[in-house]
Amino acid sequence: MIDRLVPDAARVRVVRGRPSSLDDDRAVLDAVTDWVAATGVPAVRAWTPHRQVAFGRRDTRADDYELACQRAEARGYPPIERSVGGRAVAYTGSTVAFAAVIPTTEADPRQGLDARYEAATTGVVGALRSLGVPARRGEPDASFCPGAHSVQAHGKISGIAQRVRRDAAVVSGIVVVDAHEELAAVLDAVYGALDVPFDPTSVGSVARAGAPTSPDRVVDALYDSFCGEVRRASVDAASLLDSDV
After folding, report:
1. How open is the CA angle 114-120-122, to the nearest 5 degrees?
2. For a disulfide at 184, which of 35, 98, 200, 221, Cβ 3.0-4.6 Å?
3. What kind and span of H or E run contains 73?
4. Cα–Cα distance measured from residue 143 to residue 198, given in angstroms and rounded to the nearest whole number
5. pLDDT, tens only, 85-101
6. Closest C-alpha to 151, from 168, 169, 171, 134
7. pTM exceeding 0.90
8. How far apart are CA 47 and CA 94, in angstroms?
């Protein structure tokens, strides 16, 4: 992915791990994005976020948004609001998230929107196939966070979103590793409150596809697929909140 989007990249920053609190973990991506914008060096992060339900902007405008938050909280999933569009996404604690942060040089950064989506989708499919998941593009009907940039195998496994700034673009998403029935249950309650169509059986996972269910293996597969042969420089996520590295 990185070599396609930043052909002259001599290195890519790989951000590993997560801070101990949910708020600090959310702050990491902003710090990474600022660093990419300042240096012009791309970065990739893959990790297992804390348990939560992340609501999109459209969700927050729904009449029963507060009820949806209450339902998530009652099931042990703290509700948060994310900065991109789309519908609610749940993280069980073993769900893997990923983000590729790309420096933008175009006068209009949105000009590269389709190319970034294409590269990220190809990267996710490649990572999952390397683990033995028969991944392909698309999603079943009434999936969580429905969108054109999704990956499926025995249900939806991954969805991809994008946030664009003047100086950097963030292409992010999730990979459901296991616990798809638990994830489906909390999303069924949340989507019911939001009055959004949702089929619990549409949720897939790496486990449901019969592949190894180690989040660490999924994280490593994403790094390999996204970074390719570009030289990697690793940094711990928590350290980004305490320094200017």
Report:
1. 100
2. 200
3. helix 65-74
4. 6
5. 689 999 999 999 999 99
6. 134
7. yes
8. 9
